[in-house]
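User: structure tokens for this one?
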Amino acid sequence: MELILNKSVYTPGETVLLKLQGTKKEDISLSVFSLDEEVEQLRLSCEEGENEFSLKGNFLPGKGYGIVCISESGENCRTAFDVQEKTTVFRYGFLSDFSTEESDADIQSLVKHHINAVQFYDWVYRHDSFLPPEDEYSDLMGKHNSLPVIRKKISQCHEHGLKAIGYGAVYAAGSAFAEKHPEWRLYAEKNRPLKFIDVFSIMNLRSGWKEHIISEYGKAMDDVGFDGIHMDTYGFPKTALDADGKVVHLEDDFVSLISEVRKQHRDSTLLFNNVGAWPAEKTVRTETDAFYIEVWPPFEKYCHIKELIGMAKTSGKPVILAAYPAAFRTNTPERGLNAQLVLMCAIAAHGATQLWFGEDNAAITQGYYADYYPLPAAHEIALRRYDDFFVRYEELFFDDALKDVSMTHCGWDNVEYQCSHRCSVDGRGDTIWLIIREKPGRKLISLLNLCGDESENWADGRNDVTDQTEVMLRVQCFGNIKRVLAASPDFEQGNCKKCRYMLKQDKQGPQLELRLERIHRFSFVLIDTEE
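Assistant:
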């Protein structure tokens, strides 16, 4: 059986429509959960094949809900959904095939993974002239596109609750255009203009190029129908010469570009690519709708993922990491899957999302999205189960009031959190990675099992995990305990269960002690107290 939602995200008061596919002629039980509370239960008589129904609950904004379906014959399936008044959790995916008319299977695959915004990658005719002279055209990389197909896909996105975001580089032009405007170009030295991969000329935002590219952004939104623009940079150059030989520091011009686009398109969705976190210190306060970082070396380790998210959260916006699971391309499919499962857990546990999924069940493995990796069906299902989990418990993982205290509250003489097993707070190999977040009255402990592999590099292929059993946690807890819950995407349909615990008095204060029988890849423990 498979549960399919009609939308990737819902607004307050909107009806949740579902399809249940692959059923027999039998009764099924369907439950909707908010954390450990069952908020709605349905008993349905299903026909063979496909059945449609709706949920009528009073679902609240800022919360995720899990749906678990169990048939009389013992089959089960699950999914999740969330309710947002505005995009506070930005789940970003991609599309790059715009050549032929087709069904909305690619959009449906995005909905299954709860993608709520889609980057239309390399849809433009030319990076300097977005709209094509004819409906059917090839871009500068030789990829064939169709403008009617693009418009149809935008419409399909809107039908399923996804925002359609048009790709648009901030300073790239084709050679023909650049040669007509030498005064708009950037140079490595006199008479040697800068290029990227020998295809795209790099243009100067202090010239007439700035007004030109903003005009092209307007065409993408007004003429094609995009909801916003993904303003791409390449991370190079950072410094160059203008046509008169004067030094240009590019980071000084990005803020004014974003500000001007926002001024002209107040209600659009704007993203800016901080490649390798550059120039985050300049762009962190700009009027983008999320803070987006494309992760490249030397940000190679799990600890760097933690560091980047912590820095990006100072923006006060949703955080997106474009961290491409290269191991699908460079290693075996199984080791690629293990690596991506760990990476998506690490990113979500720190309260951010990852751009990695798109097209028709495919993963990005490198900077050119059109060279994507089609996922084997079993791997897509495994990855979807984790996406379901992080949507279901959205109110925990994406609560920015929960501050990361891992480095200050665990290890050495920090006794606030203790673990019986070999652990780390920075993603070291062959440990249980503890990600600890707190706010008054709430503690969230994520346990990410890295045991069985020594690698600390997020882009490496990984061995399958070695399960850890009888994991004891001790947590300093002042105030009356309201509830202690645990859940994992690996067990019991992702359901939240009450934990047994003991309270012990220690010289440092009261200690809550609990035992997790088994950790496969990822689990969390939630402790709510009265303060």
